[in-house]
Structure formats: C-alpha cells, structure tokens
Amino acid sequence: MIEIGVSGFTDHPDILSPRGGLAEYAQTFPVVEVDSTAYGIRKQSVMIGWRGLVPEGFRFIIKATNLMTQHQTADRATLIQEFALFADSIAPLIETEQLATILFQFPPRFGATARNVRYLAWIRELMPTLPIAVEFRNPSWFETGMRDSTLELLADSRMSNVAVDEPQTTGGSIPLVPETFGDTLFVRLHGRNRAGWASGERSERTNYDYSDDELREIATACAGVAQNVCYIFNNNAGHAAARNAQRLQELLGVEFNGLAPKQMSLF
C-alpha cells in the first residue's frame, strides 16, 4: 500500500480554499503529519475533534514534542511526565487505529553517541507498545561503518527509520536510506534547496519544487522496501508540497479509497 500526504493540514493553496482545514485536506490525502505538537502537547479534546473531521481510514503522524526529542533540555522527572502526558493526549487516535506513528525528529546535535543510544532505548521503555519513527539529522548515524549498526539499533528497539530526502551538503546532510524495521517505510521529502538549507532560514530551507524525474528517482529507491510506503512532503516554504504530492500520486498511478467526500459549492 502507498500513502501520500503533506506536513500540516493548513496553508496548502493547491488543495485548500482560504478557510480550508483538516476536513478539506482529507478530501485529497489519506494521511497527514501534524507538526504543531512539536511545540506543545495537545489536549485529548483536540485529537477527538480532528478525528471527527476525517474518514475512519484516515491516519495521523504525530510529532513528538521538542522536549521528547531533546530540542529542549529537561530533567528526568520532567521528561517522564512529558512522555506520559503525550501518550495520554493521543489516546483517541490509538483507540480508532488512526495513529500511523509518532515521529521523533532529532536535532542536528543528536549524534551517534553511547548516551544517545541509551536515550533511544529509554524512549522505548517509556512507550513500550506505541509505533515510533525516528528521523536523524546528524550524519554520524549513517557514516561508513555505522549505517548497519544504526539500522540494527532501531530494529532492536522496534522503531522505524525515516528515509529522508534533503539537500546534500558537505558534512551536514543525511543520505536517503530506504531501509526500515516493520511493515511501513516512512519517507519525508524536505526538498533539495542547498542554498536555503545551508542558510538555516525557515522560509527558505524547504522552498523547493520537485521535478518529475526527482520524484521518480525517490519512488524507485523506496519501491519494494516494505509492505507499505508512506510519503510525506515537507517542502512547504514555496507551497509546492501538495502539488508535488499529487504529482507523485499521478506518477505512481495510485488511487486513495475512503477519502472524505468532496463538498459541492452551492454558489
């Protein structure tokens, strides 16, 4: 099975009207990545509200908070509480089997060290049964001689490796590694804007429009790796994400069943 979606369910003018939101987004794609949760835990009522706006088969990728991914520092007791509150908040999506995975996107300083290996193991202790996908942003995890160990570590912890497409810069990029544990390969596409990526400017880092050849290249690399492949487009800065996602769907000849019904305008 192939799923295709976009990071965020707002600000996609190619598929949404000016006031469009999740309900309208679900008319086009069967999965969404929610990145707002990185900045704070949402209440259960919010998750229930989201659940009520989408069809039964729609799925959510929920980003772990910045405390959980060590973008921010906290003591052990605070972290334990954060994990518990987060797990409680997503319970409504777990109940209806609409949680695709929890995305742990680690910061560039989270390198392949013994301490960080222990932290990954601790995450699994705190979340023993929940689906977890890991995106590294420090290239040390996939350097020569480390790649196999990294993939083995994630498999032992029952965590999915996120295959990342991003600009390849000297010493600071993650290569596309289409290998993972489990039945689903999650692929995140950030674009290939090297200058914008190096600048660090949020408005430019993901400002990129994929060509058909590039989309075919990524799809070919990820084909047959796992039973399911879930592509998430995060090249949002220039509003190309939704358009590229729809184009990949066309190139792959995929149809999504069970989408929300299109609403007919009365005017």
TrEMBL record:
SUPFAM superfamilies registered for this protein in UniProt: TM1631-like
InterPro entries, sorted: DUF72 (IPR002763), UPF0759_sf (IPR036520)
Domain of life: Bacteria
Pfam families tied to this protein: DUF72
UniProt-recorded name of the protein: DUF72 domain-containing protein
Organism encoding this protein: Lacticaseibacillus pabuli
